[in-house]
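Lecture 7 notes. Example A: sequence first, then its structure tokens.
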Amino acid sequence: MKAKNRSLFSIGLFILIFLICTIPSARAQRFEVAPTRLNFNLEPGQNGQMMLNVKNHTDKKKTYLLSLSDWEVTESGAVNYLNPGTSNKSCADWITLNPPFFELQPNESKKIAVILRVPDTPEANATKWTMLFVQEAKEQNETAAADKGTKAGVTVNPSVGVYIFQSPASYNNVAALIQNFREVEKGKIVAADVKNMGDVIVQGKVYLIVSDLQTAEEYQLEPREFTLLPGVTKTIQLSLPDSMAPGHYTLTAVLDYSPDKDLEGVIMDYEIK
């Protein structure tokens, strides 16, 4: 079995992109946070506010803390958390949380204001993001295992993270690239790398077209959907159909990421012996 890469090509068609689906709420055993993603579309110099709902599901009064953290995605897909305001893609310094610290009675809910003030600077003409953590705090004197010699304070329990994104509605520097089309597992899996070349989040899909050169049959497989932050590269793996008989094929990995952009793809000559 052998494979041979060809150059990128553009297809003069386009399809409407799907809207990303996100989990509307998250529960950390004893409390619930909704939504888990806040999308701001403010222009430089504008202010905006979105509300976050936190509910105490326990039968006791609880205290909650709010904090911000920057995060970055590595090429391997791992997430690194950073101090707020340290990433060049951070909007943490633009955010005010009101209140940042509060108590809830059993089964009580509270609305939290997430206020975003976008500066009127050139740097604001790009997608920025940060993470908001909602944490349940427990008084140390309520914890049997607490160190008796420790001063009074709080110990932080597991938290729920809320993604915050800011992208100006008028800014649409959308660009993506598909490359490095290759075989991963003989006769079973191929892969291609997709990189976000623009300054806004890319939401798209990659699908595989298999062309049988013996029979002239061509069929399209189910797409793999993805979301990419600016500057991030993601490897998309695509499974080959089990029904491929010995012979010569052309495999095409197609990238569809914007209704305003042509489809892009990479081609591989593929032989099964």
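Example B, a different protein, same format:
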Amino acid sequence: MPSSHNGSSHSPKRRTLRPSRPIAAAFIALALASTAPVVASSDIGPLRVQWKTELSSPKATASTNPKETALLALCGPADTALMDVAAIVAKRQLDGAHGLTADELAFALRAAGDPHVWPKAWSLSGENLDDDDIATRFKTFMSTARTLGKRRCGVARQQGAGDASVATVITVDALADISPVPTSARVGQWINLEGVMLVPASGVQVVLLGPRAAPRTVPSSLSGGRIRSTFSVDQPGAWLVQVLATVSTGPRPVLEATIYAGQKPPTEFVRAPVPGEEAAQGVKDPAEAMLRMINAARIAEGRRPLTRDPALDAVARAHSEEMKKARMVGHDVGGGDPRARLQAAGISSAVAGENVASASSLQNAHRALWASPSHRGNLLLERFTRVGVAVAQAADGTYWVTEMFAG
């Protein structure tokens, strides 16, 4: 019998609101998670990659394999980096592994030179796979996918020992493209980031997360759909660069790059522990589990823990239910943006912010929120003193998480 799984990367969505600043200028990070768990196998060893010297998009390509061409006809235009990653996933599955976890998938995409966020992964494995069955299952998977920008795809059809075979698809909804950015640089080197929006946008921000510092926003501009920013990677180690744009559904990440300053990129994926993730062990209530992870992370980083606020809980709970109903992660999915929802609830504060996420587990949601430069600022902002937390779980097991901060 064939087995299938699908998923997408966990990326957090964060919004910080101040009365004196427009909504479009708020920091955002969006967590869009898998519709089913994607579990890594340890029996074939860690994920290994070869890094491209630069990251850029688009990189159009084609396949000479008729079976892959048929999948691309159902998915969309082929992209070189996505094709490379799909081949990696397919090969690992033939060797006995399951699909890549969200953080492994992001690592593989950056190594292959792709800058896009929220990738979705789908695969089907078994003996003597039927092409029509593959097409039917993949169409069902794609029927739930929303496309705001340009859909790009990578596919792989590989044959293993005997009759074993696998079909894999990696797809992204590209809202922006980026000119070449190096994946390694000298310490102190200035990086010129240039990109172009593929959908209308009213503003952008570029946020850096260096190896030993809190996330910071660097100067950037958006003119005629073109994104520009210049910054220095002034410490040795890994730098995560995130471009956030305010589009029709609100502010969200649109591009990410990883630059290694003063060192070569690692060829082997190593999962680093995330502050706070152990604090949820044994906690049965999902919202309480998220709260414990938030506060444990803050304490680990020298911040004071937040007090849970029932009024903020109620606002967060209503929003998580709205996201679950709409099957969409966002700050406004029918009940208004964060500022409007706080005002409707009669809540006022000097500063407020919101993180929202969708993930296959609470730990994955917390990891995704922590990994994003823009939303980590909400988790660690010293001006926040209160928080409301809510988790709505869908029938398929997906967790829809809202964290509403105030100070």
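Note on Example B: The domain at 177-261 is CATH 2.60.40.10 (Immunoglobulin-like). The first strand starts at residue 3 and ends at 8.
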